[in-house]
C-alpha cells in the first residue's frame, strides 16, 4: 500500500525509520501487504538522505496520486496542516497525526471531513506520544462511564519538577538543564505554562465525554511559580508536586477541565512518575482506576504510535471506524473554581492563630529553615472561590490544588 509522510522533522523521520525497520512485522499485521513510502513532503532539502528520491515540495503530488491511501501528518501547528489534512480527507485518503495543537483546535471539523470522505482520521500519538491512551479510551473502556481523568501530560515540566524534588534544584536551574538536554525549547512557554498539557486535556475530554472541548475552555496554570519552599513543605506530608491535567464529570451536560500544579500523595500511581515520563490515570465506574505510563514524547515512541495508526487505517481502507465526538457547547465546561471542591495547599505570611480563625480544619506543614512569619497548611475540601474569599486579606505566597488521584 502506497503511503506518504508530510513533514520530515523529529516525528516524520521517526515514522519513516519505523516503517523501514519494521517492514516485515507491519506487513504481517495488515495481511501481507507492506506500507510502501511514495512521498515525503518537506520544503527543506535533504540531498544526503537515503530517501532523497521520495521528497517533494508540492502537496498536490500527494493529493492527486490515486495510489496514496494513508498519509502521516507530522508538520505540527495548525496551518498549513489543517488545510492539507482537510483536502486529503475529502479526497478519501486516511490521515494520521501526532499534532495535538491541530486536533485540539480543529479535531471536530477534521473528524466530520473523514466521515464525509468515508475514511479515517486517527491521532493516537497526539496525547502521550508512544503511550496507548486514545484507542483504550475509545474502545477498551467503552463499557464505562468515565468519572475523571488525571494526567502528567508534559515530560519537560515533569523533568523540571523531578529535579526540584530529588536534587533541591531551583526552577530556573532545572529549566536550563531541560533545555541543555533537549527536553525544553529555547522558548519553553508552551511547556512550563501548561499550554501543551491543555491541548492534550482537550483531546482526552472530547473523547471521554463526546463533545468537543476547545483550549480556551480549559483553565490553565503552569509551574513557574513553584518554589523549593513549596516542594519542602509538601514533602513533609509525603507528597510531591506534579503538573496535572484534570477532567471531572459533573453530569451529562457539564464537565470541569483544568491544568495546574497539584499535590499528589506518595500512595498515588502518579507520584512515582519521574523525569520525562508521562502517565494518564482514567477513573471508570466499572473498572475503577487504570493507569497508562511511558515515554510521552521523543522520536521513536511518538513514531511508534503514528505507525500503529497507519496500520489501523490500512486495515480499514474504504471503511470508516466509528470514532470521534460531536459538537461542543459554550457552557459545557464549567468554571471549576465555583463548582469543584477539593483541599488546597496554602503558603502565606500569617501566624497559625490567624489561620485557625479563618479555617475550621487545617493540617499545618513545616520545613527546615521555616521563617517565623510564614505558615503552610492544607485545608479541608472547598471550592477555590470560597478559599480566595477566606484569604482575601492575607498575604498569600502560593496556592496549589490537592488531588484525590
Please give a structural write-up.
There is one protein chain. This protein has 405 residues and is of the alpha/beta class. 35% of the residues lie in helices and 24% in strands. The chain contains 15 helices and 16 strands. The chain has helices at 10-21, 23-29, 59-63, 81-90, 100-116, 134-140, 155-167, 171-180, 189-192, 195-209, 228-235, 299-315, 336-339, 352-358, 384-390; strands at residues 2-6, 36-41, 55-56, 68-73, 94-97, 121-122, 146-152, 219-220, 239-251, 254-265, 277-284, 288-295, 344-349, 363-365, 375-378, 395-402. Strands 7, 8, 9, 10, 11, 12, 13, 14, 15 and 16 form a ten-stranded mixed sheet that branches. Strands 3-2-1-4-5-6 form a six-stranded parallel sheet, with helices on both faces. The mean pLDDT is 96.
Tally of DSSP β-strands: 16
Low-confidence region ranges:
none
The fraction of residues in strands falls at 15-25%
Integer-rounded radius of gyration: 23 Å
Q: State mean pLDDT (0 to 100 scale).
A: 96
How far the N terminus sits from the C terminus, by CA atoms, comes to: 44 Å
The major beta sheet can be summarized as: 10 strands, mixed
Q: Pairing-aware structural class of the strands and helices?
A: alpha/beta
Number of helices: 15
Helix content: 25-40%
* Form type: elongated
List keywords for this structure.
alpha/beta, six-stranded parallel sheet, 15 helices
